[in-house]
Amino acid sequence: MKLRLQKVIAEAGIASRRKAEILITSGQVTVNGNLVTTLGTKVDDNDKIEVNGVPIHKEQLHTYLLYKPRNVVSTVSDNKGRKTVTDFFKDLPYRLYPVGRLDYDTSGLLLMTNDGELANRLMHPKNEIEKVYVAKISGFLTASEIYDLKHGVTIDGRKTAPAKVKIIKTDKNRNIQLVQLTIHEGHYHQVKNMFKAVNHLVDKLSRERYAFLTLKSLISGEYRELTHEEINKLKHSEN
């Protein structure tokens, strides 16, 4: 059976499908010794595929749930020498990369995988995967501010999708509030900017749930591999 070249590269754990497309169009992929730059090219098991001169081999797929600590970068490498999420998996014999990202100073649930198809599905906006955050904010949300968050606020000229808002705790003495915010978007600094749009700064932020997955039984810096049942559920349902 012939498959699209970018799909084969993604399934080999080389990169996500989107990055595989970039590898192809930028002239870094050959098939049977011939340079291929056209997306949609189909290949089968008999074709010899190389990325930057290195043959690819279909890799066993793995997905892990990491409890990302604060002050860790959600990238494969960092030019500033900061600790990255891949540093937690150095002893594993396969390369993992993060599904999406969490800010440097944000902790919580982050998926790590070498399954490019799964990563692409989870990050595609149309699937609207729910993400649940708990934020410690300065001041207290008013009824109108809660309404705005629930119905969408404008950030850089773009209105956010409706969100779910739940007040967890209010500390009048410290002038802070713990707020649970559920969204399905993943724009840069999304949660912080949503609170900023209603005039509140986020002092601390953690992602507590991703789809149906939680941090249960893990402490900061720990991880566990997802079960086959969990992976199948991620592939076939939104939440």
Task: Please describe the topology of this protein.
Elements: E1 3-4, H1 5-11, H2 17-25, E2 29-31, E3 34-35, E4 42-43, E5 49-51, E6 54-55, E7 63-68, E8 97-98, E9 107-113, H3 116-123, E10 131-138, H4 143-151, E11 154-155, E12 158-159, E13 164-171, E14 176-183, H5 190-197, E15 202-210, E16 213-214, E17 223-225, H6 228-236
Parallel strand pairs: 9-15
Antiparallel strand pairs: 1-4, 2-3, 2-5, 5-6, 7-9, 7-17, 8-9, 10-14, 10-15, 11-12, 13-14, 15-16
Protein name: Pseudouridine synthase
Domain RNA-binding S4: 3-60
GO molecular function, one term: rRNA pseudouridine synthase activity
Polypeptide structure, described:
Helix 1 (about 5-10) packs across helix 2. By secondary structure, the chain is α+β, with helices and mostly antiparallel strands. The protein has helices at about 5-10, 15-25, 115-125, 145-150, 190-195, 230-235, and strands at about 5, 30, 35, 40-45, 50, 55, 65-70, 95-100, 105-115, 130-140, 155, 160, 165-170, 175-185, 200-210, 215, 225. It is elongated, with a radius of gyration of 20 Å. The longest helix is centred in the N-terminal third of the chain and has 9 residues, at about 15-25. The two termini are about 30 Å apart. It has three domains: about 5-55, Roll (Structural Genomics Hypothetical 15.5 Kd Protein In mrcA-pckA Intergenic Region, Chain A); about 65-125 and about 215-235, Alpha-Beta Plaits (2-Layer Sandwich), CATH 3.30.70; about 130-210, Alpha-Beta Plaits (2-Layer Sandwich), CATH 3.30.70.1560. Keywords: Isomerase, Lyase, RNA-binding. InterPro entries: PsdUridine_s_RsuA/RluB/E/F_cat, PsdUridine_synth_cat_dom_sf, PsdUridine_synth_RsuA/RluA, PsdUridine_synth_RsuA/RluB/E/F, PsdUridine_synth_RsuA/RluB_CS, RsuA_PseudoU_synthase, S4_RNA-bd, S4_RNA-bd_sf.
